[in-house]
């Protein structure tokens, strides 16, 4: 059996501090976020609100919703974790979906995400080059439903762009009402 770690609270704080330099911030859909110099990624409940932040987004890791056992096993067999020495590029892509998405039943959302959009199948081709972590924030309030985080080596960044472009063409993305694409880098 695959082990699912307990939920982890993660804060993404934009401002003057943090290990990651914000290289680019692109509004894709809906309202943008303000530009800042750096991003601090803090794990755990000790990550207190930062009054001086340009903005702060918080989310928690969670259990899987839509992934089938065979997909979860296939992902687990190839994926690598965050924090690899060579993975000095990152992307934080906060996403909000519309009310129509949330009005669907679980099986309908799964059908859109995978049978129609091939989200998992598409993404699988980019492992292990891209490491990822999905944070949920719809249930804890805030302006987004998901904070998606990705890390890769600089030479894989343009392939990652191909994946993001392909996902944005899918039926799943018809339900996305707000998306900001933030690209980052850190010292090797
Ligand atoms: C790097 C390859 C990727 C893989 C292997 C991958 C895989 C997955 C999987 C398995 C899920 C479902 C989790 C569940 O069962 O609850 C998921 C959800 C999600 N992914 Fe990806 N993904 C990838 C890239 C991306 C990218 C580039 C984006 C954003 C541009 C993205 C955005 C999302 C979002 C927002 C969800 C949550 C969907 C929802 O619950 O409605 N993913 N991904």
Give an overview in words.
- By secondary structure, this protein is of the alpha+beta class.
- 23% of the residues lie in helices and 32% in strands.
- It contains 5 helices and 8 strands.
- It has an 8-stranded antiparallel sheet with strand order 4-1-3-2-8-5-7-6.
- Residues 64-67, 75, 93, 95, 119-120, 123-124, 126-127, 130, 132, 134, 146, 148, 163-164, 167 line the site of protoporphyrin IX containing FE (HEM).
- Protoporphyrin IX containing FE binds at residues 64-67, 75, 93, 95, 119-120, 123-124, 126-127, 130, 132, 134, 146, 148, 163-164, 167.
Features:
globular, 188 residues, 32% strand, alpha+beta, eight-stranded antiparallel beta sheet, binds protoporphyrin IX containing FE
């Amino acid at each position: 059996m695959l082990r699912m770690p307990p939920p982890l609270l993660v804060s993404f704080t934009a401002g003057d501090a943090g290990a990651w330099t914000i290289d680019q911030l692109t509004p894709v859909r809906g309202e943008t976020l303000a530009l800042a110099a750096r991003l601090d990624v803090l794990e755990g409940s000790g990550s207190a609100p930062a009054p001086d932040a340009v903005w702060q987004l918080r989310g928690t890791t969670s259990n899987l919703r839509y992934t089938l056992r065979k997909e979860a096993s296939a992902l687990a067999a190839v994926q690598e974790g965050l924090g690899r020495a060579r993975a000095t590029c990152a992307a934080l892509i906060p996403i909000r979906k519309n009310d129509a998405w949330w009005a669907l039943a679980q099986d309908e959302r799964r059908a859109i995400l995978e049978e129609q959009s091939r989200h998992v199948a598409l993404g699988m081709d980019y492992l292990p080059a891209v490491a990822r972590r999905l944070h949920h924030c719809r249930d804890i309030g805030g302006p987004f439903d998901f904070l998606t985080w990705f890390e890769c080596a600089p030479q894989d960044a343009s392939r990652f762009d191909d994946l993001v472009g392909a996902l944005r063409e899918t039926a799943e993305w018809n339900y996305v009402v707000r998306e900001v694409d933030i690209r980052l880098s850190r010292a090797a």
